[in-house]
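Hi L.,

You mentioned the student needs an example of a multi-chain input paired with its predicted structure. This one should do, with 859 residues in total across all chains.
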Amino acid sequence: MSRIGVFVCHCGENISRTVDVEKVAAAAARLSGVAYATDYKYMCSDPGQGLLKKAVAEHRLDGIVVAACSPRMHEKTFRNAAKSAGLNPFLCEMANIREHCSWVHEDREEATEKAISIVTMLVERVKKNRKLVPITVPITKRSLVIGGGIAGIQAALDIADAGHEVVLVEREPSIGGHMAQLSETFPTLDCSQCIMTPKMVDVANHPNIRLYTYSEIENVEGYIGNFQVTVRKKARSVDMDKCTGCGVCTAKCPQKKIPNSFDRDLGMRPAIYVPFPQAVPNTPVIDRANCTYFKTGKCGVCQKVCGPGAVDYEQQDELVVEPVGAIVVATGFELYDIGPKPAGSPYEGYGEFGYGTIPDVIDGLTFERLASASGPTGGKIVRPSDGKEPKQVVFIQCVGSRAREKGISYCSKICCMYTAKHTMLYHHKVHDGQAYVFFMDARTPGKNYDEFWRRSIEEEEAVYIRGMVSRLYQKGDKVVVMGSDVLVGVQVEIEADLVVLATAVQARTGADSLAQKLGISYDKYNFYSEAHAKLKPVECATAGIYLAGACQGPKDIPDTVSQASAAAAKVMTLFAKAELEREPIVAKVNERNCVACFYCKKVCPYGAVEEKEIRDRNGNLIRVVAYVNPGVCGGCGTCQATCPSKSVELDGYTDEQVIAMIDAL
Amino acid sequence: MKHAKMQLSTETMNVGFVRKVEALSGSSVRRCFQCGKCSAGCPMRSFMEHPPNRIVRLLQLGQYERVLAGRSIWYCASCETCSTRCPNKVDLAAIMDALRKCSWDAQGPSKESLVQLANRLFIDNIKTYGRQYEMRLAAVFNVKSGQFLKDLMLGPKLITKGKLKMFHSKNKNVGEVERIFARIEEMRKKGEAE
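Structure written out for the whole complex:
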């Protein structure tokens, strides 16, 4: 005979307003197996929990039902109380008479009756509860960081400084990401390279960081604490151990007319190249698609001039498997392209802006390269068509962003600030030039941000025009901008020398396929989803995977660095424990009944079901059964519902328990 | 003019004019971020074709013709509600004063406006009598503006209440007033006053 205690909570007035709590407690006391029942104003309060602990001791209770709020709210609280009273915490259950009863009903009598039914069900359930023990999983104390922009660099350095090994994987030949392309950064106008490159060098020199550049994630298996990640090291065609970074090969390469994507195609690079002078590692890579040797089999100049003999045309892609315990995803963003889009793309281009065919219409990142001291023009602002210094520059904000018809409804967050910065950089470099900005709203929430924007208007004399641009067209060597000033209420026309578009920040192409490899969720724009918008902003719903930077949504550098450090802190928290403790609500297979149909394996969303071989003492295979890896199992119960032979059960939610609840009704 | 397309370039934006208004008024024009609080509280807003905030906006774009062409600046009652409440310390009342002065000096389009006429007659009266002589002001204004019967019926009421005197009474020290005007004229010539 069970000795169950029932504790009915008033929740202030939240429950007692609609439910006669005393009547519920009295009805519970009459149930078979209930040794004690009472009600209290706030069960979750310290005295409420004290009441529960005291009752466990006084009435020798072996099961507890707390009739209160949702288990999502306070199950942990009461299970901890039960534990400290010496009871197995999994013998304590919540009967939800608030969300499921008092909040949704008005009739007091009927609500009370329903509350009694709910409590009765839970009492029957607790009678069948088993003592469960938390599962412990070993942790591999190494982490993977995907993406070598400022987010990935910050996260990798923080984790490595804490003494844990980090594998940093970057798709491009050098780390640095978008931040390495920027000229100066708001709101302090410090040079991006100056604050970025020391961190890049730190990454290269850190004894705890293993850097894979020109590499991609091939496959991810496993679960929190125990991931197996396969990294594809793309063939660089240069032996990284032998190369000294002398640069003779890049200087001698006869093929020199390949647009450099790092400079937004404004400058040219050879077929064997380092993307930019401060690249880390400073090892060239051969662009096989454009290399004469790979196209025709002739040339081979770089191999001939290479002193250490590092150039290797035969090099193949290499797959490396890295065991890690946690993953930080920091894959960044890319910019909206106003050109016409291939069929199937959700993003419309801008026909009214000429679909990107007007040469002197560029995007913000291209302007960064023009303004950068290390850019293709050495920091001189010239326009792409004829290399002349533009005297009238028009900046247009919200191109792609906040334009539902163009495919994106969100605000890209960084454009207001970088456009304000652009007007300043332009004014500093072209004193007799005039900058105009067409904008809808100026969004400058950030420390010293609004002051920065006002400075661009009040001191740097940028003319901000509230209103959007309807159309751009070429007229002679000018670009005519047709806009409006909604504050005056008139149309505005400017004949500009250069037009700079603040195009939308969007997720990387292929962000969705990486998410599928990792098993993390993403929104309709392919930005990765955090577990909770406010309270778990850096964790993915998938345990052991964390987010940093603009892969989660548009973000500026300060926010990105903060989030990267936060993600690193989460990884360190995980690694601080010797073993990982998990709730034991996992599926278990009854191996005697299992018919090895493996339907469970097909339906398991976590990939937790494995095939287990049962052998006799001589090692002969007797049969194969399903096995649920408790470290991976998410406790969803899909296998239990699918199993035709009823041989898999979810602990804490067994058929026996659920049927007992139904029978009690 | 009011709805005509605005061509913006360094030539069409008269920065010199904006600087002059800023110097005269002692208030920044660029500081305004167009919140509209000035227009929200302006008692004369409903009479103006350009509300106060738009006056500043047009100034920011150097569109002085548009500003001076309108009658808005002459409707301003100089109550200073705008300046008092501005979150950015833009002294709009002072800017309005400066604009009126610019309009006057420029023999601008509003030179012929009745407000200007009233102002001129007002000053002439002070010059002549050393104080205001309302009856003459009203009579001359009506004749010069061609609205002979304007507000005629208000006359008897004002007279009975003692607000309007039939005959003028000269200021005892008209000579002093004359000297003040003479000094201003002298300062103007020297360039000390505008």
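You could point out the following to them. Residues 235-316 of chain A form one domain. Residues 108-128 of chain A form the longest helix (21 residues).

Best wishes,
N.
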